[in-house]
Amino acid sequence: MAIVKSNLLRDLSKNYPNFLKKDLEKFTNIILNEIKNSLKRGERVELRGFGVFSTKIQKARISRNP
Asked: Which residues in 5-43 are b (16+ Cβ under 10 Å) and which e?
């Protein structure tokens, strides 16, 4: 399931008509940047009722393109 940022903003503006679209966009940018920065630091991000984000380091491997 993929969520496009423009669709997310559209849904938020429908659910919260009292907020301006530019304020909702700033809010979502702040949240997404905080999630991104936490993942860069190697921390685990949990959004209750949505999911958990974490990073995993994999060892390098040699592969071939058949």
From this structure: eeeebeeeeeeeeeeeeeebbeeeeeeeeeeeeeeeeee
Q: What is the pLDDT along the chain (66 residues), one digit of tens a residue?
A: 678 999 999 999 999 999 999 999 999 999 999 999 999 999 999 999 989 999 998 899 998 987
Amino acid at 61: R
Are 46 and 52 a contacting pair, CB within 8 Å? yes
Q: Which tokens in the block code for residue 66? A: 């058949």
